[in-house]
Amino acid sequence: MNKRKVVILGGGVGGIVTANHLAEILPKEIEIILIEKNKIHSFAASYLWLMVNKRRMQQITSQLRELVSNRVNILFEEIKLIDAQNKTVTTEKSNINFDYLVIALGASLYKTHLDKHQSGIHTFFTFQGSIELNKALQNFKGGNVSIVVSSLPYKCPGAPYEGAMLIKDFLSKKLKNNFTVNLYSPEPQPLPVAGPELGNSVKEILNKKGIGFHPLEQMTSINYTERKVEFASGNSVSYDLLVIIPSHKTPDVITNSGLVDESGWIAVNKDTLETKYENVFAIGDVTSITVPGRWQPDKPMKLPKAGVFAHSQAISVSKIIASRILGKESKELFCADGFCMLEAGEDLAGFAYGDFYASPHPDVKMKQLGKLWHWGKVLFEKWWLSPYGLKKSFYKTLLEAGGKSLRIPINL
Ligand SMILES: Cc1cc2nc3c(=O)[nH]c(=O)nc-3n(C[C@H](O)[C@H](O)[C@H](O)COP(=O)(O)OP(=O)(O)OC[C@H]3O[C@@H](n4cnc5c(N)ncnc54)[C@H](O)[C@@H]3O)c2cc1C
What we know:
Layout: E1 5-9, H1 13-25, E2 31-35, E3 40-42, H2 47-51, E4 61-63, H3 64-67, E5 73-75, E6 79-83, E7 88-91, E8 95-97, E9 100-103, E10 108-109, E11 121-122, H4 127-139, E12 143-149, H5 159-175, E13 179-184, H6 196-208, E14 211-214, E15 219-223, E16 228-231, E17 236-238, E18 241-245, E19 248-249, H7 252-255, E20 266-267, E21 280-282, E22 287-288, E23 290-291, E24 301-302, H8 307-326, E25 337-345, E26 348-355, E27 363-370, H9 371-384, H10 388-402
Parallel strand pairs: 1-2, 1-9, 2-5, 9-21, 11-18, 12-13, 12-18, 13-14, 20-22
Antiparallel strand pairs: 3-4, 6-7, 7-8, 10-19, 15-16, 16-17, 23-24, 25-26, 26-27
């Protein structure tokens, strides 16, 4: 056991789970450092509820320190440089060397269009954006709401569809019929990686709710004065309220790290999440993973950027790192089973689940809308934002009550 320091970059979903899981399985003498620029963590899946008055700000945020094991040293600093070859990370204040590195820095959003609230442009893809959009929805007097996915890829493939349904539900309660909700996306169908059957189910739900869906529409520009969005197809749409899913990119510190491939994201081994540098791993939204199967021969697909994968990748990588440190053989492989509770308004949600590494194409199914899936999402939110100490004692009590054979589908 000659390697002693694990450094985790980014204290979002992937970073928190990696830190806590390693804290549980590594001997105490191994140092675990987590570096994150923000002291407050917000739960992104709940931005949708924040937007439609179903949550207050304090209900979806927590001090990061409370969510992470005391065994982990957290540095609240901005990372400026990653030198994977020489195994060092530079922040605004320190130079830190590492033996093992886990990069979980997520995706950044282009800010273009996002300071244009006065022109009726909003987003629910950020915490602050959801607060502003909530105000705009409360003051909305009627007209056209257009939800536009500005480019691919974006995180959480279900989010624009959930957003559209929640906005429709919210406005229906206050405005009756003098408004429309339309969604425009460059995708050929909702959640394309999940295949045509699932896409058709989502289209059917949108249709029943009276939401227009416009596939294969790539936004090219916004005319702020005329309040009009132009698309590459030559089509355009006038809006009274425009909700943008902003373009995503790797954080700047990654762009110059030598870790990105031609896709602009970090290429990793799809089973071990290791980058081209030994003992340097990347997980979550910052990665680009080609899914083995495909729906159409000429169209390779990527694993969606989603918290559920950041979470399970964090557990796989923790196990691999622990095995290497302890000098044991590791059989751990990331398996890409994933699920998503698709919020549909009226406290209902669909449940999509499956194996994204299946061949000849991902095998993903969807259960009908039900209250159960909605409450499952609510429970997960409460669990995620609970202090680490509470989660740990709850987990231990369950294990003791059920015995070691009880398989609890949660991981610290
Ligand atoms: C509206 C919305 C709804 C969603 N709903 C779902 C859902 O229902 N299910 C699901 O699975 N996923 C959902 N997601 C997606 C999910 O939130 C992300 O996929 C997940 O957070 C990715 O985890 P990550 O660890 O890769 O990145 P993140 O959680 O984004 O964490 C990255 C961290 O790195 C930090 N960081 C970045 N750069 C630096 C730097 N230079 N220095 C220091 N720190 C830095 C950031 O501050 C951040 O804390 C949703 C996303 C949105 C926006």
